[in-house]
Amino acid sequence: QVHLVESGGGSVQAGGSLRLFCAASGFQGRRYCMGWFRQAPGKEREGVARIGFDNEYRYYDDSVKGRFTISRDNAKNTLYLQMDSLRPEDTAVYYCAPLVCGGWRLASVFDSWGQGTQVSVSS
After folding, report:
1. What's the CA gap between 29 and 10, in Å, rounded?
2. Distance between alpha carbon 104 and the CA centroid of its chain, in Å?
3. 42's torsion region: left (phi>0), alpha (psi -120 to 50) or beta?
4. Is 108 left (phi over 0), alpha (psi -120 to 50) or beta?
5. Are strands 46-51 and 68-73 parallel, antiparallel or unpaired?
6. Rounded to 5 degrees, what angle do the CA atoms 70, 111, 40 make?
7. Measured distance CA(34)–CA(22) in Å, rounded
8. One pLDDT digit (tens) per residue for the chain, 123 residues
9. What's the rounded Cα separation, in Å, for the pair 59 and 65?
10. Are the C-beta atoms of residues 82 and 64 closer than 8 Å to each other?
């Protein structure tokens, strides 16, 4: 039902920037808050940033606050994550997902994770 396709990852030196994309389909994206997650090898998946129905409400984990910017284009069913001042600890596979607004709980419409996109930051 839900199809999520992440892209835009790559390899960059510390201090560099990347812009991630999440193409969503199979559900009414306008009616869901959305979020970005990441998972490093050997670690649990963690929430990075989330956004409301439009670009007004935004929340960031302390580890990325001031460096990452989440945004969305509902007309294109696309979620974005602008990542600046990247650090080696940002290295992970990044995923997107629809959320219950106000937290990191996955929305009931969610049924599977996308393939994710790899971000590698070297010193």
Report:
1. 26
2. 12
3. left
4. alpha
5. unpaired
6. 55
7. 10
8. 899 999 999 999 999 999 999 999 988 888 999 999 999 999 999 999 999 998 889 999 999 999 999 999 999 999 999 999 999 999 999 999 999 999 999 999 999 999 999 999 999
9. 8
10. no
